[in-house]
Design brief:
344 residues, four-stranded mixed beta sheet, alpha+beta
């Protein structure tokens, strides 16, 4: 007796759906093309040539995901901005070395491919690449039956940038007296969502209708701000910028020390940047103190810029002209026996 033939689709993998998704995303990827792209979507590997304007290029790479923010995307059927989060988490990390993001690749994995959902997610990825000036030149869509619950997926992203060797930012020039500028975040970004979800669960039906003038769900899911173009413009104009810190997991207290020389501390001033309704609601609902807020969330500051005092006002003006909300939030001082970051 001959067995009934089994196709790959019978096993749960729909090649036609995958092909349909590729056709949907090709025009989105095309909008992100830039100098250096030699071959992009469709090949076994994407090719990129480092722009010839670099004399001593150093490549800077970064990879990240979106974390448990995805759980709310599934629950609320909000898939069009998590792709921006994915790009932002990697390109903002690459940026803090002083590097220009050049290209990005994504990895989208699911149990059963829903073309509309995947296209919404990858559309967000393409938009994030556009906003940060890097090319979406490749990626992988993996349909793996039995690996993920129905309606869920996972995301990972990979960014590569370049910086002149002589202009790498590593915080080595930071000195006592330097000014700490904070660039406002767009919200929670993509860190701390395990606690955000607990807060939503604790609040139950008693959720606010709006936060900071936005519907509650929109305020929670607001994508991570992309700081690339404004900060690169400031770096090109102001040699007094000494260090950058992307405020992600660990908040202000654990990310700023990553760019400080030994023996120095960032002395931040409590109340020197605006308190948003979003973070006030999270703190109130979680019933946690200021220290825990500053260690868990960005708490309103998504990127920190350490700059020489003589250039602080000019750097702030350049960033504001590019659309950033900039606040002088502290100074660099001697650490002594204290913490690397204080907020007082």
């Amino acid at each position: 007796m001959n067995p009934t033939p089994l196709s790959y689709k019978d096993a749960g993998v729909d090649i036609d759906a995958g092909d349909a998704l590729v056709e949907r995303i090709k025009p989105l990827a095309k909008r992100t093309m830039r100098e250096g792209v030699l071959a992009g979507i469709g090949g076994f590997g994407a090719l990129f040539e480092v722009p010839k304007r670099y004399k001593e290029p150093v490549l800077v790479s970064g990879t990240d995901g979106v974390g448990t923010k995805l759980k709310l995307a599934f629950e609320w059927n909000m898939h069009d901005t998590v792709g921006i989060d994915l790009v932002a988490m990697s390109v903002n990390d690459v940026l803090v070395q002083g590097a220009e993001p050049l290209f990005f690749l994504d990895y989208f994995a699911c149990g059963k491919l829903d073309v509309d959902t995947a296209a919404a997610v990858i559309g967000g990825i393409a938009r994030g690449c556009e906003l940060s000036g890097c090319a979406l030149i490749g990626g992988e869509t993996a349909e793996m039956p039995g690996m993920y619950p129905a309606g869920e997926y996972d995301l990972a992203g990979f960014a590569v940038g370049a910086v002149e060797k002589s202009k790498i930012l590593a915080g080595q020039d930071v000195q006592d007296g330097d000014v700490v500028l904070g660039l406002a975040s767009s919200g929670v970004h993509s860190n701390g969502f395990s606690l955000v979800r607990k807060c939503i669960e604790r609040a139950g039906a008693d959720l606010p209708a709006t936060l900071d003038g936005k519907p509650f769900r929109q305020a929670i899911m607001e994508p991570t701000r992309l700081y690339v173009k404004p900060v690169l413009a400031a770096l090109a104009q102001h040699p007094g910028i000494k260090a950058l810190a992307h405020i992600t997991g660990g908040g202000l207290l654990e990310n700023i020390p990553r760019v400080l020389p030994e023996g120095l501390a960032a002395q931040l001033r409590h109340g020197s940047w605006p308190r948003t309704e979003l973070f006030a609601w999270l703190q109130r609902t979680a019933a946690i103190g200021d220290h825990e807020m500053n260690r868990t969330f960005n708490n309103g500051i998504g990127m920190v810029v350490v700059v020489a005092p003589a250039e602080a006002q000019a750097v702030a003006a350049t960033l504001r002209a590019a659309g950033e909300s900039v606040h002088e939030i502290g100074r660099i001082g001697p650490r002594g026996a204290g913490a690397a970051v204080t907020v007082a």
